[in-house]
Design brief:
Blueprint: E1 15-18, H1 33-45, E2 50-52, E3 57-63, E4 69-75, H2 82-93, E5 100-106, E6 114-117, H3 126-135, E7 142-146, H4 158-165, H5 171-194, H6 196-203, H7 210-214
Parallel strand pairs: 1-4, 1-5, 5-7
Antiparallel strand pairs: 2-3, 3-4, 6-7
Helix pairs in contact: 1-5, 2-3, 5-6
Length: 215
Amino acid sequence: MAESNSPAEWVVPQLIVGLGNPGSKYDQTRHNIGFEAIDALARRWQISLSENRKFQGGFGEGWGSHRDKIRLLKPSTYMNLSGQSIRAVTDWYKISPEAVLVIYDDMDLPIGKIRLRQSGSAGGHNGIKSTIAHLNSQNFPRLRIGIGSPKNQAATAKGEVISHVLGRFSIAERNTMDEVLQMVVEAIEMSLKQGIPKAMSLYNSRTIGLEADAS
């Protein structure tokens, strides 16, 4: 299969979505790091987010660092129904799946790492399962943010996983995640300006914070 690294084949994201759960009880939990990424982008680009009933989420539009129109979305449907909100926006603006960049948490990645990809499966993430189902496609870019796995590596019980993803970061982890969010903003800005393959080559290999200190 031919590599899609030619500038002519870039599909520039028009909608950037961060996955999470609505409500103050979920604020700054590991599972809501996608929401935090959208907030960081909104601050960077001075885009105001407000609740949009039609789109079932917090929504805003403005101009990104690439000086083109960009839309930001935080679905308020709860994680496992995220695709409903995303589909409402893509239908309204006639946006193809390939132009939707989704940001979400990943337990399989350690804290301090991110992974940018142009397509892929859900990998067990309910928000991505819903997105794939509603877009009827796996061909949309996604950026995974590492949140680490439960302290007890042998623990595979569902309750242990839930308490981990719905828990909050320690002070040290929080400091690292603040740096990670800055890296996420930089990676997305590069994706908009020079293409996702270029950003992948630079940022997928980077490690910051706790993991970098331990290496």
